[in-house]
Design brief:
The chain is mainly α. The chain has helices spanning 12-18, 26-61. Pfam families: DUF1192.
């Protein structure tokens, strides 16, 4: 049912980019960087998987013209 709901304007990355970082300690900032790097890796892996899936579908349904 959640798929039926409209997507919220803005995303988590946009909200994070606007957050004031002044209150965070050096340790908290280091932990945040680790978490963000892990999220970047997760998003890249998903993007690559989706791209491979799309390429496989394109190859399967491509009409031969040779």
């Amino acid at each position: 049912m959640e798929d039926d709901l409209p997507r919220a304007k803005g995303d988590a990355a946009s909200l994070l980019a606007k957050e004031v970082l002044d209150p965070y300690s050096q340790d908290e900032l280091a932990k945040r960087i680790v978490l963000l790097e892990a999220e970047i890796a997760r998003v890249r892996a998903h993007r690559d998987k989706a791209g491979a899936h799309r390429a496989a579908a394109d190859a399967l349904f491509r009409t031969r013209t040779d």
